[in-house]
Design goal:
Elements: H1 14-25, H2 29-32, H3 34-40, H4 44-72, H5 76-87, H6 94-126, H7 135-146, H8 149-168, H9 170-198, H10 203-211, H11 220-233, H12 240-245, H13 254-282, H14 291-303, H15 308-322
Helix pairs in contact: 1-9, 1-13, 4-5, 4-11, 4-13, 5-6, 6-8, 6-15, 7-14, 8-9, 9-13, 9-15, 10-13, 13-14, 14-15
Length: 323
């Protein structure tokens, strides 16, 4: 058992580890899924149900993954193999590790595509290509981007190069440093956007829209949606938490750390909603979900606001720092 490869480096401190977990948890679902789910499935009722699912199921499973990673100091496949050997059970449990790695690879392939889109939009918005664009023009611009292989290859290559440079430098010199600077930058950009959202005149209306309890909408489908989003947003079952945990010092409290991440992830998701909805309401636009919200609706909404070009660039830079 001692011949297995063990993680040698450790996170520099607990704070960086929390930022790393937050960086993994705060994903696309926080912008194009969570606010939409809150809006469509009961407002504050859905938020309460989501919190119950996250605290009762999501956080304990996240703690288990981090604990397995720290105990074995190995990747998910080796970790499950080691645990099966220690417990005297079938070695077939290692296939759980294989599945988590496969899931992570599939998720990354999706994120890499979206990252290429975001890099392209940062460039396009910075050069004024979407100034004063309407919905039809914005939709056409997004469609044209999707059939422009040269632009997408360049954007995708830039993203992949950055990922390779960070990961190639190792945990302490690469990922640790990137998280230490990019996550605070992400929070700063989000704070700037939130301050602007409070000045739109629709902040209170957005608050009522998102947080009003609608008990009549409680249903089994709401429970399934809340539970599914808790798994999705906490990156459970993808081997990420297990891998991150393998570099965590044994002196740190896993329970306190993971609980902090769960609370911060939820708060930031709600803040994103309080950024998006006041801006959309201020320009009388209906909220959408999925890529259409991020790449079609939001550029049009920002284009109708004072200093909209600067704000739209900040918005997409926020996503670059998050990715």
């Amino acid at each position: 058992m001692q011949t297995e490869r063990k993680a040698q480096e450790l996170w520099s401190n607990r704070g960086v580890f929390i930022l790393a977990l937050m960086g993994s948890s705060i994903g696309l679902g926080n912008i194009w899924k969570f606010p939409h789910l809150i809006s469509e499935q009961g407002g504050g009722t859905f938020i309460l149900l989501y919190l119950v699912c996250m605290l009762a199921v999501g956080v304990p499973m996240m703690m288990a993954e981090v604990l397995i990673g720290r105990h074995t100091r190995s990747n998910p496949v080796q970790a499950m193999r080691l645990l099966s050997q220690e417990s005297g059970v079938s070695s077939s449990w290692q296939w759980v590790g294989f599945l988590s790695v496969l899931t992570g690879a599939l998720v990354f392939s999706f994120y890499a595509v979206v990252a290429a889109w975001i890099f392209y939009y940062v460039y396009s918005l910075s050069t004024g290509l979407l100034i004063d664009a309407g919905l039809n023009q914005s939709n056409q611009f997004f469609t044209q981007m999707l059939i422009n292989p040269d632009a997408l290859i360049v954007s995708h290559s830039i993203f992949m190069l950055l990922v390779l440079l960070i990961l190639g430098a190792g945990v302490r010199r690469g990922l640790d440093r990137a998280v230490r600077y990019l996550m605070p930058l992400m929070l700063l950009l989000l704070l700037i956007l939130l301050v602007y959202a409070t000045q739109t005149g629709f902040f209170y209306q957005a608050y009522q829209h998102l947080f009003t309890f609608r008990l009549e909408k409680v249903s089994s489908s709401m429970l399934i949606s809340a539970l599914g989003h808790a798994f999705f947003t906490l990156s459970i079952g993808m081997g990420v938490m297990m891998t991150y945990g393998s570099y965590l010092s044994r002196k740190e409290s896993i329970g306190q750390t993971v609980a902090c991440v769960g609370v911060m992830d939820t708060l930031l998701a709600l803040v994103v909603g309080m950024v998006i909805f006041p801006i959309l309401m201020s320009v009388a636009m209906e909220p959408a979900s999925g890529p259409s919200l991020l790449f079609i609706t939001m550029p049009v909404a920002f284009g109708q606001l004072h200093a909209g070009q600067v704000l739209s660039v900040l918005f997409f830079c926020w996503w670059v720092s998050r990715l």
